[in-house]
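Training component of the fellowship. As part of building independent skills, the fellow (R.M.) carried out the full modelling exercise for a liganded target. The chosen ligand was adenosine-5'-triphosphate. The inputs are recorded below so that the supervisory panel can assess the work.
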Amino acid sequence: MKIFLIGYMGCGKSTKAKQLAHRLDCPVIDLDAEIVAKTGKTIAEYFAEFGESGFRDYESEMLKTYDYPETCVVATGGGLPCFFDNMEWMNAHGETVYLQMEPAALVSRLHNRQKRPLIKDLDDEQLLVFIKEKLQERDPFYTQAKIIVDAFDLDGEKLEEAIKGVI
Ligand SMILES: Nc1ncnc2c1ncn2[C@@H]1O[C@H](COP(=O)(O)OP(=O)(O)OP(=O)(O)O)[C@@H](O)[C@H]1O
Ligand SMILES: O=C(O)C1=C[C@@H](O)[C@@H](O)[C@H](O)C1
Ligand SMILES: [Mg+2]
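Fellow's submitted model of the complex:
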């Protein structure tokens, strides 16, 4: 069983993926971190060199060709479900869980913006506007997840509880 955690930057995919994998005693894969490990570039460097479209091609290829263990928790990149047929692919190959969070809560989580190239130059006010716009675009993809959980105040135990029906 592969469990894909999806959602906007800062909703806690990487953090909760580790907690959930620990509880389920299975490996965790963070696709952003895998991209960094495979390319030797940070996400910001990859964007700077190949542009967003180069990054989207690469992350989709990584999603579909990664040699996943039978059971694992996968933290995806925030934009990954919204490009190509990535969302359909994840739904066909595992369980998808949308960690949903309000824009204002996301702003308060996103202090360290330098490693997130899409938002690195925005102040809090600009970030709130940007996130509201982006979430409108992205929600039709994110909400195709099989399970939607409120990510505010979420921890590994609550997440495990929310997905109990499917694991
Ligand atoms: N339950 C929580 N309460 C408060 N802060 C949290 C909680 N979970 C995660 N955070 C903090 O929120 C920030 C974003 O978390 P994280 O990096 O896991 O998000 P992400 O969804 O993986 O983002 P990205 O899409 O950019 O990789 C981190 O600074 C993390 O420490
Ligand atoms: O929301 C996004 O588009 C992104 C989220 C991050 O996880 C990274 O994959 C990258 O910074 C792009
Ligand atoms: Mg992450």
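The panel noted the following from the submitted structure. Residues 34 and 136 are 28 Å apart (CA to CA). The chain has a mean pLDDT of 96.
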